[in-house]
Amino acid sequence: MNKRRLLRTALALAAAGLALGPATAQDFPPKKAVTMMVGFAPGGAADAAARLIAKKLGDNIGQTVIVDNKAGAGGNIAHQLTANGPADGSLLLFGSIGPLTIAPHMMKVGYDPFKDLAPVSGGVYFPNMLVVSKESGIKTLADFIAAAKKSPGNVTFASTGSGSASHLTGELFAQRIGAEMTHVPYKGGAPAMQDLLANRFTGYFAAPPTALPHVETGKLVPLATTGLTRPAYMPNIPTVAEAGLPGFEALNWYAFVASARTPAPILERWNQEVVKVLKDPEVRDALTKHGLTPQPTTRAELTDFMQKESAKWGAIVRERKITSE
User: Fold this and answer.
1) How far is the C-alpha of 43 from the C-alpha of 296, rounded, in Å?
2) Quick one: average pLDDT of 92-100?
3) Does domain 34-126+252-320 have CATH number 3.40.190.150?
4) Are 74 and 104 in contact (CB under 8 A)?
5) Nearest partner of 252 among 92, 45, 50, 109, judged by Cα
6) Which of 115, 124, 181, 257 could form a disulfide with 95 if both were Cys (CB 3.0 to 4.6 A apart)?
7) How far is CA 131 from the centre of its chain?
8) In the beta sheet, which residues pair with residue 205?
9) Lowest mean pLDDT across 22-36, 210-224, 253-267, 308-322
10) In this model, does residue 199 exceed pLDDT 70?
11) Would you say residue 69 has pLDDT above 60?
12) Domains of the chain: which residue ranges?
């Protein structure tokens, strides 16, 4: 009897091992080409960073890493495609602050960032920069705040779309100064920048890589950056916190996530590879030249960061009654 029980136990353990094998001992890297999806069109900060990182990742793992731009719906389309996509480690998403921590508070997005997507590692972050046209007559952040308080609603600010980081930064700013500003959404940074240069609205919380060339030519006036510290590449521009709103911080960021159905060992391997790339001196230097700061993290650290960001921006969405319309 004991021999029979031992045999049954051995067979059961063997069967369990076979069942678990593919999920716990899957080959890495994937045998097919790896896709790094980006939720925005080519040419922006996200695309530039993704291509730098993808190239180094491919070199390190000996496998092709293809950047696939799936623009639309403020990046939400790419996030939903990833949630429903391959779970074998062949698909990474260069996810962003909007779809991961803002949009779910504003609309039905078709995915849950914390249930359908799994954290891999932080990617890059950068502060936005409040800029105005030189034709506006505004020269300092104090001038901008005074104008907003003098004529509530007449001061306008652009964004790359409703629910974007630039939109929510403007809403947080309006909340902190206690004055209403009118939001002007655009379908991307390029058209917003073009209209700002033509002085068609008051200000824009722009990505530094987009704004700096026009600051250098004198066409735009930089008022402040939105991080707690001054970026090394903009040492002469004060932060919003320094210029009048202590503690103000609104960072734009991108992080690597994958389908939550991806086996944990594969996610851990990707974390190791992404962190290795983000710590590479050449990659760090290249990203810095684009105005981006590498942010390698553990998977747990990224989860904690996303939860805090989601709580922060969710509160702003509710208080300011922000919708996707």
Assistant:
1) 23
2) 95
3) yes
4) no
5) 45
6) 257
7) 21
8) 130
9) 22-36
10) yes
11) yes
12) 34-126+252-320, 129-225
* Amino acid (1-letter code) at residue 189: G
- Tokens representing residue 180 in the block: 């209403």
Q: What is the pLDDT of residues 4-55, one digit of tens each?
A: 554 454 444 444 444 444 444 457 888 889 999 998 878 777 888 999 999 9
Homologous superfamily of 129-225: Periplasmic binding protein-like II (3.40.190.10)
Amino acid, single-letter form, for residue 6: L
The count of other CB atoms within 10 Å of the CB of residue 280 is 17
